[in-house]
Amino acid sequence: MNNESDVIKHKEESPPPFLGTWKNVYSLVLINLAVLVLLFYLFAKVFE
Amino acid sequence: MTTLDWVVLCGFIGFVVFYGTWKSRNTGDVDTYIRAGKTSQWWLVALSIMATQASAITFLSTPGQAYVDGMRFVQFYLGLPIAMIILCVTAIPIYNKLNVYTAYEYLEKRFDLKNRILGSTLFLTQRGLAAGFTIYAPALILSVILGWEMNITIIIMGAMVILYTTVGGTVAVNKTHFLQIIIITVGMFSAFFVLMTLMPKDVTFIDAAYVAGKMGKLNAIDFTFDLSNRYTFWSGIIGGTFLMLSYFGTDQSQVQRYLAGSSVTQSRLGLLTNGIVKVPMQFIILFIGAMVFVFYQFVTPPLFFNPVEEAKVKSGSYKTEYEMIEKNYKTIHSNKQLELKKLISSIDRGDEYQINKQTNKIVESQKEADKLKLKATEVIKKSDPSADTNDTNYIFLSFIINFLPVGFVGLLIAAILSASMSSTSAELNALASTTVIDFYKRLYKKNADDNHYLKISKLATIFWGAYAILFAILAKELGSLVEAVNILGSLVYGTILGIFLTAFYLKKVTGTPTFVSAIIAEVLVLYCYFFTKIPFLWYNLIGCLVVVIGAFLINKMMMIYAKVK
Predict the structure, then answer these.
(1) Alpha carbon B347 to chain centroid distance?
(2) For residue range B303-324, what is the model confidence (pLDDT) as tens digits?
(3) Every domain of chain A and the residues it spans
(4) Domain residue spans in chain B?
(5) Can you state the angle between helices B307-314 and B352-383, rounded to 10 degrees?
């Protein structure tokens, strides 16, 4: 069996090229999704 | 199609095939052939991931779905960004650290050989069939609308993909993906802009959006929790996340795309870019479908979009009955067009009372038109019981052929063929890699030289290409094509994902409990498919949970039994 836990522990080794940490980049992706859902919903409501 | 359209089509497709073959002709080792030597930058990883997922089915069926059913299909993709994040956290570092060539190689390193073989077998079964569909779907639609001979279309398309994929492996696939995604994007945006210019002069973009909205076609988000409703926010977020996790995390045709990333960072950025771009991209494609619907409110659409089935019923004994329905359908549409003009002028004046009044009239007319369409499909079925009565997949291409200007038709068909070829090449590439790495090298010939495995990889690509072509030639109609492929994936994806999630997160669970629970899960998913009405998106969740919980419990029982013993 291999040592995946070690891998997971070291997953943050190389930082992303922007926003400082991977956590921030992931948050950006989630915020983008939330904004899109909201926009799609409003788009439908406005033209309903 | 005019000569100019043929020149555009052959020019684009010919260039892609030549470029892919030429640029990758010196691929000389297995690592480069399967993982592009792990040299790809994030943008190439992202484009390749998108091109792999965006098959011709995406561009033919999706606008048609919006035309018929509105934009709610976009919710199917809402879980994708979440899945991308989970894979960035979990799968990419592990695959990278273990330096694997296929996702299933990891299963042996973590569990044992039988789990690796189970995972790769499920992949080969499902993806082998899907590769056939990827060629079959556009060939069927092109043959019906353009009158192309279907088997020849399948063979030519398949042969072109086999050529460059066999010569250059992943390098060729990635290089052609770059060009194909450009053609697809240019094609779709061109279709949208031309479509807007084809609207009546007094109908602005805002007016068109109002008409689509009033007629229920902009229903992109539905927050109701209803298990019997296939596309809701919740089924997309929950079921969609599991489906996308399976597809991107365990399907070698996608895993191979980010395994080619030059580092963990490049692979992650590639996946996350897909997480940001994919949902709006699907929204735009669906919106084009909604606009095609609006366009056909001002131009009477055909009663049935499949010209072959329509010609058959008109030449049979139900001709009079069908033509009577067609006449009534045209009358309803003519009346509706007058009401639509009144609606648009009410919208422009901001007269709420008139807007509601006209909207109700138009919705009622649409219901009448839908009833007539249903009657027409019944007549088609009576005339020929084997007839395909679902014309959703023909709507967009029918619009392209009949209304786009010369040159644009060639561009759009090049985009559709590019999409088909981009998916097929990634599939053949992945099927060959899994066959060689997980079966041939692992079970048959362990210590041959690199050149030998390279040759076998090329032979495996040709084999799977021929298999896909054969399957495409033999395939039968399976309802809406886009859903057929997704259903096929959902029958095995949950189980595969369960195996991988157990491997990633349940560190104490061993191979045998995982294997046993995977078999139970697969049987249960097949039971759900054949004997229940549970929508297919939930199969991913069911299969996955059964494997994870089952593996955990069986493992616990085995540990207790071992202690007692």
Answers:
(1) 37
(2) 888 888 888 888 888 888 988 9
(3) 16-47
(4) 3-296+399-564, 307-387
(5) 60
Contact B64, B276 (CB under 8 A): no
A24 part of contact set with chain B, CB < 8 Å: no
> What is d(CA B381, CA B80) in angstroms, rounded to the nearest whole number?
38
Classified as helix, coil or strand, B149 is coil
CB B254 within 8 A of CB B48: no
Instruction: Compute the CA torsion angle B188, B283, B65, B396 (nearest 10 deg).
Output: -10
CATH of domain B3-296+399-564: 1.20.1730.10
**How far, in Å, CA of B119 to CA of B495, rounded?**
9
B250 Cβ contact list (under 8 Å, min separation 6) = B103, B119, B123, B493, B496, B497, B499, B500
What's the gap in Å between the CA of B3 and the closest CA on chain A?
A: 41
Question: Does residue A34 sit at the B interface (CB-CB below 8 Å)?
Answer: no
CA distance A43 to B284: 13
Q: Is the ipTM of this complex over 0.95?
A: no
- Helix B91-98 and helix B252-259: axis angle, to 10°? 70
For chain B (565 residues), the mean pLDDT of every run of 10, in chain order, is 88 89 82 84 92 83 89 92 94 90 92 92 86 83 81 90 89 88 90 91 87 87 78 86 87 90 93 95 94 91 87 86 90 86 83 83 87 90 81 87 89 88 90 93 88 92 92 65 63 88 90 94 90 79 92 92 83
DSSP, res B261 = B
Amino acid (1-letter code) at residue B159: A
- Residue B560: count other Cβ atoms within 10 Å of its Cβ: 10
- Residue B446 CB burial class (10 angstroms; 0-12, 13-18, ≥19): exposed
Structure tokens at B449: 């030289």
B275 touches chain A (CB under 8 A): yes
Q: Please report residues of B whose CB lies closer than 8 A to that of A47.
A: 209-210, 212-214, 218
Per-residue pLDDT reduced to its tens digit, B135-191: 887 887 788 778 888 888 899 989 999 999 998 888 888 889 888 888 888 989 999
